[in-house]
Amino acid sequence: MDAQARPTIAPAPQRQARGTAGLGLGLLAIVVFALTLPMTRLAVGTPQAPQMSGAFIALGRAAVAAVLSAVFLLATRARRPQGGEWWGLAVTAAGVVFGFPLLTSIALRHVEAVHASVIVGVLPLATAAVGAFLHGQRPSAGFWLCAAAGSALVVVYALWHGDGDFALAPADVLLLGAMACAAIGYGWGARLSQQMRAEHVICWALVLSFPLTLPLALLTRPQAALPASAWWGFGYVAVFSMWLGFFAWYRALALGGTVRVSQVQLLQPFLSMLFAVPLLGEHLDAATVAFGAAVIATVAIGKRMPVRTHA
């Protein structure tokens, strides 16, 4: 058989190693991202004790991360994006630089981080759907069933754990919109990570956004003195949530596949809740723990379901 006619398919052990590395990096990124909602709540405050505006938190964190990104791109001698990569970066930026941070920051003034965390449970299904569309991945029916079951669990919990009327509040609608933005940004960022270094994807998206984020951040900056805790929260979301976390996340999606690695996100709501208890003094009840155990079970089962790709 002609050597040129043989398909270049990675050996099974190599594919398995990449998948394992992707899941490990994905878990690391989710731990970083799990602190985003509690830290944002710390920075934005409550209706009774407001701190920074949601607009400043979203735009300011992107502007700070853009400066760090520019230094990193120069230090690593990153190549400039080419052709259609600019469009992909614009879509990525719309999702994870503008959409998700802005909507969550506004919403978190009005809901506790524990409540907002459960809404994040719909993100794995949304990310998997975007990934399947963009990357030609074909999850099995069993995989989709596990993803849908986990997402349904957290949505039911969010509705039941609200005001008791089984209706979504305006803040919940904003959070669901944020999940859609994040899924699109994750999917397109993962696609770009197949063409350039994963760390460079978020850096270029942030630098591309800088001409907008910097002036808007300056316009919405706090006009009064704020407690150190608010600035600590802002600092975390600027350096870790908006920048370093994506280094691990986009690398994870590139190694393990968007559809499969996205299911690690099912752990994020409950990690966020655990962080919110000591950081914000919020309450974690038995029902939340029960729902958390059920969702984690869907992750364990879903990881074993086949995910096919186009040849």
TrEMBL record:
It is a multi-pass membrane protein. It is found in: Membrane. Keywords: Membrane, Transmembrane, Transmembrane helix. It comes from Ramlibacter aquaticus. The chain crosses the membrane at residues 21-40, 52-74, 86-108, 114-134, 141-160, 166-189, 201-219, 231-250. It comes from the Bacteria. The keyword Nucleotide-binding does not apply. Belongs to the EamA transporter family. Residues 22-150, 171-300 form the EamA domain. PANTHER family: EAMA DOMAIN-CONTAINING PROTEIN, INNER MEMBRANE TRANSPORTER. This is DMT family transporter. The keyword Transmembrane applies.
